[in-house]
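Re-run with default settings, no changes from the original entry. Doing this only to confirm the output is reproducible before filing.
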Amino acid sequence: MSTPAGELPLLALEQVTRRYTLPRERLLQPAPGVDALRGVSLTLRAGHNLGIVGESGSGKSTLARIAMALEPPSSGRVLFGGRDLNALAPGELRAARRDFQMVFQDPYSSLDPRQRVGRIVAEPLPVGEADAVGRVAEALEAVGLRASDATRHPHEFSGGQRQRVAIARALVTRPKLIVADEPVSALDVSVQAQVLNLLVDLQQRFGMTYLLISHDLAVVDHLCEEVVVMRGGEVVERGASDEVLRAPQHAYTRALVSAASTLGA
């Protein structure tokens, strides 16, 4: 996953660690901690989707939140277009967020049930956006919904439709990068392929890049050219998806591939 000389990566993580402090068991003892990420480095080139795979607790979702600047690393840097996100002033970070958006795992909890869909989709747009209504309509229609759906509430949609609303919200700023954290795992199997194909179609139309977080190797294989395998907060294997998933080198990756093959048999 090296970047050609002279080409600036869209996203780069440099020796990123994230340590969480746990509650003290005794008053005078030091607070214990757990390392969710341990010296993770990776680069993502524009137009080259990257999948992050691993079992629960491997650090995938922590990596996604740090890549989105939703929380800071304990050490290391997160660079988007060469800019250190955690060194930006609050106003600069808000402006930068137009270029990277996130789709969360659960469409039932990630959409505010009290809000109408139009307001939900418009959330990432700057206050006072001149053509907010038009941008929302464009995003809804791009994901296969109707512009008139902007007046409805999330409970009026199926799970698959709610995830389309979530994708529309990520799409409305026309970002360069979408971080998708388990975007189909909460959906029925019959709907998963439809949403994955939608992501492919949207990339062809709008040209964004995906950082895909998933435990499902088939999903990563479908959408990503490159893959990083994580275990215990560390990268244990990386490379082209077709090579890593068909001829894994690390024992942990081989176990993941074997388990996926068994489940799919």
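Strands lie at 11-21, 33-44, 50-53, 75-80, 83-84, 100-103, 177-181, 209-214, 226-231, 234-240. The mean pLDDT is 91.
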